Amino acid sequence: PNTVAVRQWMSELVDKTSLTEDLVGEYSGLQKDIRPVTVSTYQILTYRKRGTEEFPHFGLFSARNWGLIIYDEVHLLPAPVFRITAEIQARRRLGLTATLVREDGMEGDVFSLIGPQKYNVPWKDLEKQGWIATAICHEIRAPLDESVRMEYAVAPQRQKYSVAAHNPRKLPLMQAILHRHEGESILVIGMYLDQLDEIAARLNAPLINGATPVREREKLYEQFRTGEVKILVVSKVANFSIDLPDASVAIEVSGTFGSRQEEAQRLGRILRPKSDPSTGSGQAASMAHFYTIVTRETVDQTFAANRQRFLTEQGYKYEILYEDEVL
What we know:
The protein is built from 14 helices and eleven strands. The protein has helices at residues 3-16, 42-45, 56-62, 109-113, 123-128, 146-154, 157-165, 170-180, 193-203, 214-226, 260-268, 299-307, 309-313, 323-326; strands at residues 24-27, 37-40, 66-71, 90-95, 135-142, 186-189, 207-208, 231-234, 249-252, 288-295, 318-322.
């Protein structure tokens, strides 16, 4: 779905198949190179300057008869702007996703756009087989700080979540979790950019958001993979397709309202199997921890309950903790 993911796909194709680099092309906002195997994004294929104009890049792809099209993160396809990409001609098409769930209820459209489901495996089965790390999920409930109680009480319904998500009482809890997992590779994830700016400044940690140039993102992701950077603050741009195999802790401070799909994607950032340094094994060697910090008795807690539904259906349980149990 983004340029960083495109380059990850290209790297994996060359590494895991007999394809050579000269056969794999990148077609993105930064580079436009159609080759026998071409990796692109939904965004570039559906780009146009005005809503009434044709899609200039889509035409280049639809003019060809592809042997196979792979739709990664296929749960995105039913979105009105992206579904046109299903019209590209191909002898075979394949959709991939770990989270076939949408809040608009349109996930079933994937089957009419791509075809019938061929394979589905529960996350917990993958965990038992060692393909993904064992994860423990925690929901930490913070009281609403006195300084914003009145603001929350009088806020219009649509603004209440922002007030609750920005609750200042979340920050000490986040720092307590960081202290508990000191030395591990930790992601701090949120939706509100001003909140993430404050956290990054407080922690003196790098921040990746939508405005971060691709080259800078790739550099920071690589520093995180190698352990040079231990704490990385990320916005929703890191929800999809980012391979950070050594991330073992994720702390969610805010999210996109009640999105089940986003919650699962964020947990997925820390589910890559961890290498066991004592054995050299690529199997899951240690626990991953996913923390979501919510403001109790507010819409933040209500949305959190909905966000967790997909994961609980997959067999995950959330341990409920309160402020005095963490600090």
